[in-house]
Here is the input.
Amino acid sequence: MNTIWRKKSMRALAAAALAAALVGAASAAEAVKLAFIGPLTGSNSAHGLGGRNSAELAVKLHNAKPNTKYKFELVSLDDECKPNVGVQVATRAAADKNISVVIPHYCSAVAVATVDVYTRFNAPVIVWAAVHPDIIYKRKTREMHRVSATLINQNKVAAQFLTGDQKYRKWAAIYDTTDYGKSMFSYFEKFLKETPGQMVGAFGVGADQQDFNAELTKIKELNPEVIYFAGLTPLGVRVLNQMSRLGVNAQFQGTSGIVGEAFVKGAGPLAEGTVAMYDNPPVEKLPKGKFFVTEYAKQNYNETFEAYGPYAFAATMLAIETVEKVGPDRARILDALANVKDYDSIVGKITFDDHGQNVNTATTRYVVQDGKWIDWDDSEYKTGKRKLKGH
Amino acid sequence: MDIGYIGQHAWNGVMLGVIYAMVAVGFTLFFGVLDVIKFSHGDVLTLGSFAGLATFLGLQRMGQVPPLLQLGLVFAVSIGAMAILGALIARYLVLRLRSAPAFITLLVTLMIGTVIRESIRLFYPNGSNPQPFPKLLPTQSWSWGGFTVRVDTLILVAAGLGIIFLVHLLINRSRLGLAIRAVAQDGETAQVMGINFRWVVLATFGLGSGLAAMAGLMNGLYYSEVHFGNGTMLAVIGFSAAVIGGLGNIYGAILGGFLFAAIQIVTVVALPLPSAYKDVIAFCMVIVLLAIKPTGLIGEKTSERV
Here is the structure.
């Protein structure tokens, strides 16, 4: 009788221990998943990897803290800056209920295509870089939010600055025919009309076009003072190289897509004097910027954080802190994200408007000086020691 | 339009034509000698430009090397390596499949091309991004009105035309050229006449691949950039150019290359469409030309004597 009892109790004990272990393991492994999507391969990978590293940094820093309710895990997905691939990975992230927040997209062309995917699965989304207005404003959604600015303001500032302060009057435009380039160009053209500046010619080019001799020869004929380039870094480097080959001596004006180390590395000395607008002051100048820069450096990543890394960090931190407050349930997160006001992040205070767009933008003028993008106000171009083309 | 700008467009066309002609000559040589369409040609071109880039970076690491020597070594390594690769592909793939239907060789070379392209993308550090190509040639430029010529473009065009001329001399004035032409005309009879068939084929493939490497380097120097996908479009254009000129005829290939470039330039200048359409129009013209003259503009009229 005793032996049977003992056997039974041993079995019961073993079962209880196993159950306890399993429950213990489950609660210890209760990591909340966040998805990061960006161009991790392909010609914009410098930006994608910089953003991914920054997002990972946010997760690492949070997980290192001892008394947090949740630990986080970052799932990074590659959209290759291609809309068709982007839709696939977006579906993967949005359909997975274990992923609480999706932090997607550098490329606007991809982001515009994936909005419907996220809304269909009710996935909370905080866009970290893509600037196209339609991502947020085409229709009102609960799901879409963006910490980076839209491309509208940078074009307004550009038009006013270059026609006012720099007194340029004649423009020609080269824009890529994706949603990004087309939208950039249409807004710039609109704002240019409100100034004495004039657009004498505009050329749409394929996003992976190699040869620009035809467009540039035609532009040479039109003789503009400034070339407005609305496209991403690889295209910008090519255009600049071929401008130099054909002897087109206009001032080169880019958009936020070329702001970053990849452009100055690719274009080399030809990049000197390039002007672009970007919606944040240099990260070192931001209040918590230095913290981000030092922490990033400590991790010894192979890539720099590039222009939009701080935004990726801020978006991830916002996601983390929202989950800490309301838990990993998607519906609750959506409610919380609808009420983000003056959230203090490393890129400044973030307030989402009724569509989910961060309305605190600090559009800053940038110029390339000696191989680095610096704030116009800190440059020798402002003091007059160096001059833009045509002055 | 100012004559200067027309001249500029024409000059752009000449440069493109030289590159296309060099690729087309390669295709035509392979087809002429073995009735083989080697679709890995474009990817050998890309590999050649990457080999040149790697050589340059290696030389940089080694310290100060005089620029002329740098240029020479880059070209030598790239052309030599690709010539050897071309010969190897010939020996171990093309010759082995000689008795199989022609499309098998086409498929196999297409696959080799894909392997080469993807290997570059995967194994070259940061391979999927465009790589800046060093400016190895002087870059002063002269301008007359709307027309600007840069020294390096001039050098590239001259070198390209020179190489094409040398190939012409090789094919028509040398013993190797005689052997190549004999094998192209009738392989079996050539063997009977004592020509070492194997060696001629390997030499032809080596020559064609060396030309591809040269074209790849010129492409890299002209655009200051190389990309693993460069070869794909160039191969299609080069092949089309060779076909419209007359597959098997070197002058046809050269003519086809310049003709293709001319169509592209005229499309861009004359039509109000964005320049992305230049390929569409050019390929449509290829279709039309082939419909009118299927054997190509200087095609050989071959008849099989039974």
